[in-house]
Amino acid sequence: MNKHPHVAVVGATGAVGIEMIKTLEKRNFPVGKLTLLASARSVGKKLKFKGQDIPVTELTKDSFKGIDIALFSAGGNISKEFAPIAAKAGCVVVDNSSAFRMDPEVPLVIPEINASDVKSHKGIIANPNCTTAITLMALYPLHQAFTVKRIWASSYQAVSGTGAKAIEELERQVEQVVNKQPVTDTA
User: Is residue 144 one of the residues assigned to a domain?
Assistant: First the structure.
């Protein structure tokens, strides 16, 4: 693969897409070129990457020509539709949705645990949800030492899982509570 790959972030304007962009920058990932993809309503927005304003372009079936790596975080339906197209165009897709997590043809990878499974990909790599990844980071060493056979777990997902608009609404509502104002919702 190219030492300075052309990277695309699908769902770039969403809460997770924005975090992906920040992580690429913070980790100093050797991005040769960054393409930001989202729905038509986000076209023209600009997001910062390494001090530059990068325009958001519309996700279409033709979006993946020349892209080496596509990071997907736009929901399962978008992934199901566009990840195979991206893979067919030659991208390595890393999908953050649930779309491919149970697909026996798609490796489900937590790099700190089973990074070598990446070698078996056929264009798409899945990752588990945040709660599973964090839990397994703690359980894997215990499994290695004691052979964990079963766990019972409950997870109470954060508002962040519902996207940027929900995070903004929560922030606004907290401010309303702090200022002793009536709490309103946008629904």
Answer: no
